[in-house]
Amino acid sequence: MKLLVVDDDLELLGLIAYALRQAGYLVVEAKDGPAALAVFDREQPDLVILDVNLPRIDGLEVLRRLRTAGHRTPVMLLTVRAGEEDQVRGLDQGADDYLTKPFSPRTLLARVRALLRRGGAESGASISAGDLALDPEGQAVSLRGGAAVRLTGLEFRLLQLLLANAGRPQSADRLTAHVWGYRGAGDRQLLKQLVHRLRQKIERDPAAPEYLVTVSGVGYILKPGAPSGQPNTRAGS
Fold it and tell me: Per CATH, which fold does 127-222 belong to?
């Protein structure tokens, strides 16, 4: 499941994104209204978590434009205002839920799961492309329907983003932010080490990768249809 989180409070944005990633969701972010619309069009998320008080274009206008364009993606509005009038305006614009700041990560996750269930989306559904299939619930990857190979949490989040963007190069910065979070301890050297470990599990010859390929000066790309053999069956910790 891919979630778009929009908030101009960068600290809160990072905290929300981190909690969602820890829960196994793929998260994309935006910091203002125009960016939210652009990211939505590019990424086509399964759910939007949208702050009402955004610069340039506020959250209610972003919501109105999404609904006017015919998008039925579930939208949860976030606001510091608890007034009934604001809640009614948001729901009238087509919001599916409304959460007032401050809130706990547990409350947010419960509301997200409820919205996804209501919309018929399965948070535990596998992500697949070409030969590779990722199982979020089992935190494992399988190749060509073969035996599942267990992944660590970091390996899972790395492969999750790469698989969701199969065939498209992903920058090292975006990969690092998704795996460790913007306030996390990740850096490019740790990313390189993590890529090395993941290759041990999905490549026939990790020294000559066919799936997880380095893109010089950019980052990495996943080529899910590469003609490789079965992955290494060594389990992760």
Answer: Arc Repressor Mutant, subunit A (1.10.10)
